[in-house]
What we know:
6-stranded antiparallel beta barrel, 5-stranded antiparallel sheet
Amino acid sequence: MRYLLLMILGSVLLAPRVLAAEHQHSHVGDHGMVLFAADDILLASHLPLYQAPHNYQLIYQITLPHTEHQAVLATLQDKQQMTILPQQFDLRQLIEGQSITIKAAVYHGHFERGGSVWFDEVPVNFARQLYLRPIKQAAAVNEARYDVLKINQSYFLIHQIAAKPGFDQILRTDQAPPEPLILKAPADVTALQQLNAMGIQATEVYLETADFK
């Protein structure tokens, strides 16, 4: 009986440690990101999903070694899509706003959709967290809300991913938009027209719909 009680007690004490280890492991993995820029500031936006632990919209200011940094900025100025796939790491480090350096592959195009590696094992310094939002699947509404992030003289409009079917979208404008910015839904393809009707000229930095059906 004493042996049985010790086994039960040991299992109870061990359970939180096991759950913590599983929770930690769930955050360690592949966390791809799309690149964009505000003048000479290079930015990386985490490619989120509805499923935990990927359910975070997250933008960081990043730096690469000088040669790669300038090459990536030049490519982005030509309006070519670029993504990075860091080596596996714990996403909670970025959620918590830590400054970390991770080696990553830099891709022309989307790394999951035919993109090609340009630079491999490049050290990427995640210098500063600029935006963080957990995705909450609220009930469907007839509006699309955008957060406004000002960097240098540019305003980045970040769609608040909500109910399915959703979309991940980043827009850019040099004109200060109203805050809060609320457009009619669905706005994934109509946002630019709606902004134009408001007298705001904007361009699309990124749009993803397939992962949010």
